[in-house]
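Sequence in, structure out. Go.
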Amino acid sequence: QVQLVESGGGLVQAGGSLTLSCAASGGTLRGYAVAWFRQVPGKEHAFVAARSRTGGYIYYEDSVKGRFTMSTDNGQNTVYLQMNSLTPEDTAVYFCSAGNRVITSSLRSQRAYDYWGHGTQVTVSS
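Output:
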């Protein structure tokens, strides 16, 4: 069973950058769809970015396009989310998730993913 651990969150000023990491243990992420979601208090997880199971497609939520970049290391054990030009609206707890049965049309749905990390806090000050 894959276990996911996020890291890299923190406090940054508006306009700054952070890189989040999602490290997998107990197995490789090869063949898994992997997604980043974020959550603010009182709201559900919101889709940020996702990689298809083959890794051939990456999708981004509209508000992060051009600012965030999702990538995977060659060993397929760590997924990254490079976040640039951060704004206070990006403040949230960021979660990594994975699933090996996620179809392309469900990549943006939190319910499609079986494995979740505990999240890492990102705070952007104005």
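Check: The first strand starts at residue 3 and ends at 7. The chain has a mean pLDDT of 95.
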